[in-house]
Design goal:
heterodimer, A: alpha+beta, five-stranded antiparallel sheet, B: four-stranded antiparallel sheet, disordered C terminus
């Protein structure tokens, strides 16, 4: 189980993807989203205490763990998983950050807009396959 | 379209653009904005702001979250400034209470704009370029979490001084 979300500075949802095929259950999909957003407070707290981008595991719910990554621009990236390796997750976040910067460079894109680029989607999924 | 041209021209990846093109683009943008100014809004500042946001997003890639306003300003001076002007800021002063003064002895964009010219049009364009840079600073710092106001002093071109007054939001957040 692997759900990935990108959240903007004012907590607006920018991107959400289920990276591993689950049972395809509608309820569990909503639960994953809920756990991710509920972890945002923990992410903010960890970001204030830590000086690095990669925050590792910030929250836990039952058997699921939420790992986070914050950019200097205040964008939060969250990954819901069940015990994947730290190094893999860190590499994944770094790849996605670079893909995000490419999106941000687009003058037609505003920082509060949903990310609809298929290129970004492809890069996220490729990186997930490679590192996770 | 103007900002996209500038952002691409300043990219550090394999694409290269002649510096003259960037200079000309800056001038045209400033001139265009000067023409549109006087409606109560400052279009040059707005263009600069959007540019600054993007340069900062690029500079902040892979970098740790900076808590302190001073760290953010230093990042602007050492990383964002070279992206736009080819060299870091010459001098940075602060009163440690949210006011920062950036001084650059030779700003690339001001090399061909003189403050000593008495032509009103030239003065207007110079003010427009100054607004562009103010916007750039404001946008870049804003993206990294420091809201501020910026004022420029371009009376000694090509030297220039920018006074940044940060709104003390970060300290307030920490206290909360």
């Amino acid at each position: 189980m692997l759900t990935f979300a990108v959240v903007g500075r004012s907590d607006e949802p920018l991107y959400l993807a289920e990276l591993a095929s689950t049972k395809g259950d509608e309820a569990s999909y909503h639960l994953h989203q809920f756990v991710l957003y509920a972890a945002l407070d923990a992410v903010d707290e960890a970001a204030w205490r830590s000086g690095t981008c990669y925050l590792k595991a910030v929250d836990r719910f039952e058997d699921m763990t939420v790992s986070a990554y914050v950019t200097a621009g205040g964008i939060r990236m969250l990954l819901l998983h069940q015990g994947r390796g730290e190094d893999g997750i860190k590499s994944f976040f770094q790849d996605v950050h670079e893909a995000y910067v490419a999106i941000a460079m687009n003058p037609m894109y505003t920082p509060t807009e949903e990310i609809r680029s298929s290129e970004f989607d492809r890069k996220v999924k490729n990186s997930a396959r490679k590192h996770l | 379209p103007t900002t996209s041209g500038m952002a691409v021209a300043m990219s550090t990846s394999t694409r290269h653009v002649a510096e003259t093109c960037v200079s000309l683009l800056v001038f045209e943008a400033a001139k265009h904005a000067a023409g549109m100014a006087g409606e109560g809004k400052d279009p040059a500042e707005a263009i600069g702001c959007r540019l600054g946001t993007r340069l900062a997003a690029r500079a902040a890639c892979g970098r740790a979250y900076a808590h302190d306003a001073l760290d953010v300003v230093k990042l602007l001076c050492k990383e964002v400034w070279p992206m736009a002007f080819g060299k870091p800021v010459d001098n940075l002063k602060t009163n440690h209470r949210g006011v920062f003064v950036l001084h650059d002895a030779k700003l690339k964009w001001l090399l061909r704009a003189s403050a000593r010219e008495h032509d009103a049009n030239v003065q207007l364009e110079l003010a427009s370029i100054a607004s562009l840079v103010c916007g750039l600073i404001r946008g870049a710092l804003g993206t990294m979490g420091v809201r501020c106001t910026v004022q420029a002093d371009v009376s000694q071109t090509p030297a220039c001084t920018f006074t940044v007054r940060a709104v003390r939001s970060k300290e307030q957040h920490e206290a909360a």
